[in-house]
Amino acid sequence: MAEDPLYHDARLARFYDLDVGWGADRDCCLNLARDVGSVLDLGCGTGALAVRIGAETRAEVTALDPAAAMLDIARAKPGAERVNWVQGDARSVDLGRCYDLILMTGHAFQVFLTAEDRARCLATIARHLAPSGRFIFDSRNPAVREWEEWRPDLSRRQLDAPELGRIEAWNDVHWVSVVRVFRTSWAV
Fold first, then answer.
1. 59-87: per-residue pLDDT in tens?
2. What's the domain of life for this entry (predicted)?
């Protein structure tokens, strides 16, 4: 699994929330968490969803991500103290307990490119899911061919960063063997 510097470089990770934002997918997950006792957010990134679940539900929330830079941002958010933050790999972590709801949003499941990685991730989920629990994840539909629009000329956008001012961002696709790698670029 290739590591994208967007998630591991602290200078880049802080732009994640600027570009991603809150959407209907997160509203759906937040609503699903309202009636459960425990939530595991796998691939939590900067923790926007985990923090909201912790603030707006009665659920005990654990959020896991492999990227220390993303977790540093998550831990610094208002309300973050209500979440148990764990740095770890969804393919191998064992938290020693089960959860009523396991979430994997932001297309996080797509980082598992091999059948072995996907199987290991699913085994982790099965190990942590309560008998009557739910696992919710999202993924892109390859039939839509979104990557064809991930070109600088079609994806260029302006973002306002509190510390740096206006930032220009764009998406680009780089082909590596038969694996498509999505990358967001930034210019200050």
1. 999 999 998 988 999 999 999 999 999 99
2. Bacteria
Q: Which of 142, 59, 50 is nearest to 104 (CA)?
A: 50
Task: Identify which of 136, 147, 57, 73 has the alpha carbon closest to the alpha carbon of residue 104.
Answer: 136
CATH of domain 5-137: 3.40.50.150
Alpha-helical (H) ranges within 40-184 are 48-56, 68-75, 115-128, 152-155
Residues contacting residue 79 through CB under 8 Å, at least 6 positions apart: 51, 52, 54, 55
Q: How far apart are CA 169 and CA 183, in angstroms?
A: 11
pTM: 0.79
Question: For the chain, which residues make up each domain, given as ranges?
Answer: 5-137, 147-187
- Tens digits of residue pLDDT in 142-179: 777 777 777 778 778 887 777 777 877 777 776 544 44
- The answer to whether 121 touches 137, Cβ cutoff 8 Å, is no
On whether the CB atoms of residues 162 and 154 are closer than 8 A, the answer is: no
Measured CA to CA, the distance from residue 126 to residue 61 in angstroms comes to: 18
The C-alpha atoms of residue 153 and residue 106 are separated, in whole angstroms, by: 24
